[in-house]
Amino acid sequence: MIAAEDITVSRSGRKLLDKVSITVRPGQFTVVIGPNGAGKSTLMKVLSGEMKPDQGRVSYYGTSVELCRPAELAKRRAVLPQATQLAFPFTALEIARMGAVAQGAVNPTEEARRALSRVGLRGFEDRPYPSLSGGEQQRVQFARALAQVPQPVADGVPRALFLDEPTASLDLGHQISVLEIARDFAAAGGIVLAILHDLNLAAEFADHLVVLNHGRVASEGPCADTVSDEIVASVYGIAGAVGRIPVAHIPYILPQSRHR
Amino acid sequence: MGSTLAMPFRQMGNGDRTGQGVLVLFLLVLLLVVSCLVSIGVGPTGVGLDDLWTYLRGDAASLSSQERVILEAVRLPRTALGILVGAALAVSGAMMQGLFRNPLADPGIVGVTSGAGLAAVAAIVLGNTILAPLSLFFGSQFLPLMAFFGALFNTWLLYTIGTRQGRTSTTALILSGIAIGALSLAIMGLLIVMADDRQLRDITFWNLGSLGGATFGRVISILPFVAVVLAIIPFVARGLDALVLGDAAAFHMGIPVQRLKRVVIVAVAAACGSTVAVAGSIGFVGIVVPHLLRLAMGPSHRFLLPGSALGGAALMLIADSVARTVAAPAELPIGIITALFGAPIFLFLLLGKQGASIRDMP
Question: ABC transporter domain: which residues (chain A) (predicted)?
């Protein structure tokens, strides 16, 4: 369980996060949605220990994140960043292996190979990272994160995957397969927190949805309750776009049906 | 049949370049051994490889005392100094490129060497006036220490100015490096105006960059600096690899980023400062060696850093052998040799296919 309590982050006089409290639980796929500038990435930086909040505290199973050394945190959670450029031509395998080395794998090369084939990049091991397409680069980074936390639960402690827009620059098929891997990770007892822009994907995959707006939690809970016409209208300014799939009660967003 | 023969190569081609790295390191060790033999066995005095062979066989008695002196007191310290200087220059270049995430970062180009030079000139010119107490206290280590702090100051300044939010743009890096270097040279010029004749000779000697005048005293004075830089290689290699993905990603992978950067900045300054103190400014070794090695073994610092130490040492010995023999009995400054083949490679890097991504980095 990773908990953030009363997180406030101010930068140049603007509150990026304003007293945000969220709890990310093992076994749940938690998704953060919200418009641009809502503070989603900032929240993830604070939760991963990368950024110190001005107020509030983040704890991993009760231990304050500030007391953890970087190497300890690296064993507990992996982070998939948004697009990453490299100045040096590492191969896909070498990138993925960095994640395996970070968690202290006995055989990091094998761990990296496994991670690459999990994201559908078997056969891409020797490709230089800069020569890959944007989507392939994103999947190599995902493989690196998976190689860092290969087991959803290790030594009895759930591990965490933090995914910052994991589906950006992926085609539809890979968007779904990346989120399925993340869902399996959560279902096996791991902790998953993802930032998504696509409300339909969020509605399908999230067990727990957090809607951020202007640095505050606008709504929180199961998707069926949080993705509603009122929330979408107040946060995104689009009214009348939410429908429901009758059988599963999964909400869906159809922008074409909005009130004009 | 054909596929059987291709097996080892296919295994090397599966993205894991560990075997390739080990192989290149082994070849570099061989190259360094050969370079040492050439460096000790070749020169304008007529003492040649055959005399070295006689000496190495333990038959030193059959050589004249003059020949023994040339081997033991002239060429041996010069070769030892060449190894230390070459290794330090190439490793500091490779570390700096990793720190700045930029294959064009080189201590000579971005003004770090000028900082060391300025401090060294200050040590020479002001050593018996306002800096006299320090000079007396540190003795023969005064010059290398001053050069170290000069290099450290400029590296720190460059890092502070050229880096925004953990990213260093090539433009900011090169331009602020040029400005810092020019400022250092200007202040150095002011000091040179104040220098007397004897001090001027000292200054001119290492401004050109040379391994001439090598003594075991000089070897010993820079040995601790170079030893420390080489000793930290295993501790920074993984961190520099992770840093290629950015500060945040490196932290996510368990690297204490700020500490790593501080250690690398001090190491680069130690390597540059100490080499400038004993051999003057010798350019381009720090950019050519890591670049060629990245082509041969990939960019991973696990192999790149030790490879740079070996390759830099070998390159320095070869360049010095050329400098001593090509215009014998006159001796070319070694900085001319390294610039002659280093500058074209630098331009090639900047303008070539690889350069596109570097030039376009914001």
Answer: 2-239
